[in-house]
Amino acid sequence: MNKNICLLLPLVIAACLNCSPSHAWTWGQHDLVFFLSAGPSRNDVNPEDGPEGQDMVVDANFLYSFRLDDFRLLAEYIVSTEESELERFQLGWQITEKTIGWAGRFHSPSRYWNQVYHHGQYMQTSITRPVTDQFEDDAGFIPTHISGVMFESALEPETTAGFEFAASAGLAPVIGDNKLEPLDILGAESGNGSAIDLRIGYLPDQLGDDQIGLTFSRYDLEIEDNVHAALQGLLNVEQYTIGAYIDWRWQELRMLTNVLRVINEMNRENLSDTDSFFAGYLQAEYTPLEKLTFFGRLEGTTDSTSSSYIALFPNSITDRQLLGVRYDYAPRNALTIEVGEAATRSEEFTQAMFQWSTVFR
Questions:
Q1: pLDDT at 4 over 90
Q2: 311 SS3 class
Q3: Domain 3-20+29-360 class?
């Protein structure tokens, strides 16, 4: 898609959604949510050499849902200056009051950040996503999109507390050219390995947002056109992740953290070995005023420079420290500034970003 069209199309659609009267459907329940964000981004690899990667980034996210009796449909499409892709397409059935089954392409249930925020930039406080939940298109080295079946359920004992369960099985991404590549359901091809994801979360108050939980995933990652894998004589990777997360609030303070143990069985032509590391983040937020939030995040990956698995993704951010501030200056409109130091496997650089984000529905 032409870059100018990518820039203008979201703005035109946003204006139409904001100005036109709502349309009443005669059957079923429909909901269309439109997220829009825009702003400059700058990376300085070496201050003496000047900026690298300075660009204006525009993202438009269309989230459509439909409900008719027990049937569900959810679709999410992304249009931006960098991509145009059907991110999610799920057909669902309400099995019981608290249990729903889905089939299609969805976010991995073991990635908590993506289960909370999905692709909606306005929904999350920070501009960037942490290392454990970076999307494949943005050089994330842990799968975040799965195609298959998923079940979500809730258990509500006779107290204020509750439990959430999510489990999925399907097809994992493949290891492509310097990045993971999820199955494209609009142009599906064979060759993807299997994927299993599990998440269990405990909510001390079912009406609140606080949650702690455990996650597990297993992926068979096949190789497709990755030069680093060819140099290693790598045939495929069997990846396991075991994690724990906390999302907790104390009045004006909030803490969101996730730690993963990542174990990679590197199956080679002559000799197989195990490559493992820890990856995680801690994000703290302080909201002294209703419309103003200060935040900071620490991200890290152990043994990233020696990991033969991370070597397959040379552009992936493995470590980062950032600070930022978000101001919700109007209903459904926010301005966010974020600055920090980041690192890939081979280089360090500074980041500075400014973003306007909004939501229409």
A1: no
A2: helix
A3: mainly beta
